[in-house]
Amino acid sequence: MASALGTLRGRIITPSTSSGSFEKRGFHVKSLNTRDSLETVGKMFMAGYACAAAAGTVAEAEHCIAQLPWQYQGFAYEGAGMGYAVRDGLPFGSSHHVADFLRDRIDGHVYMIYVGVGWAMARLPRFRWKTLDNAMPDPIFRWLALDGYGFHQAYFKTNKYVHQHYQEPEFPWPGEGPATYANRVIDQGIGRAMWFVGGAEPNRVADMIDKFPQPRHADLYAGSGLAATYAGGANEGELRTFLRRAGAYAPHVAQGSVFAAAARVETNLVTEHTGLATRVLVGVTPQQAREIFRDSRPAPKPDGDTPAFELWRQRISAGVATLQAANP
Fold it and tell me: Taking the CB of residue 240, how many other CB atoms lie within 10 A of it?
């Protein structure tokens, strides 16, 4: 149980859940059921944030998250990643909360925690980002923080990042690796948010993506494919429509779906929709998607001209393209 100080801290630094509502954000409503489901994602994210903001120990935060509906706990871990990163970025107190939260997790919720850290980057002054560098030691997964950054910006600054197609100039993080690649990962997060902005309506989401400059389409479709699999909100016919609209970018949609399925399989949070999405978007079960995810991962090493994270994505997309060609 959180201490009185922790409870007070949580109240002070936890944003209001109403800020993420579809009505507040002006997002498309396909149906009330879909809106409620996607809004619940945001509420569970904020619940996880609040758990981390108030907790005195990692065990307390995880106990708090365990009380939430199981199918949404991945989003809560993402929110907790943000909550701990915000605590690390504050100018007082300790700065090792994210590192403690990630410690000893070989599988688990690592993916979602790294993404959650990116949300915090969007809220913290950039000179405080250095406090997060040592907290994210994995040279491949740390790119996911930029996915979270992109999602946050597209979700809360939708007109600028989605409708006006804004792209960050000379993005300053991470310090190593090709600087130009940062915007590609940010685009994956923007594409993921666009699944929410478009209310999980496939033609609306595809229409928004197709208005972006063509070189950005692959990453945007990958992000939307991830959200379509992890967050859900579309039936079989709608998923097939989205895959058809993706056209030449279908392998990128599938790559995002593989990432999402692996994140759910590795945390025992597979839903009925997870299986539907991987069957339609990839042509495999969630468990098979997880094997593709694992088998395609490069060995961790310093990034060269092509970051290892991008090599991983390329290997997944190529493997899925071969699979889909063999089973049209």
Answer: 14
- CA dist., res. 208 & res. 187, Å (int): 13
The CA-atom distances, in angstroms, between 270 and each of 18, 96, 102, 122, 264 are 28, 31, 22, 29, 5
For 9, 128, 199, the CA distances from 155, given in Å and listed in that order, are 25, 22, 12
pLDDT mean values, one per 10 residues, the chain (328 residues): 46 57 90 95 94 90 95 96 89 78 77 93 85 79 94 95 93 76 95 97 98 97 98 97 96 96 96 97 95 88 79 90 73
DSSP 177-192: S-GGGHHHHHHHHHHH
How would you class 99 by CB atoms within 10 Å of its CB: exposed for 0-12, middle for 13-18, buried for 19 or more?
middle
pTM of the model: 0.92
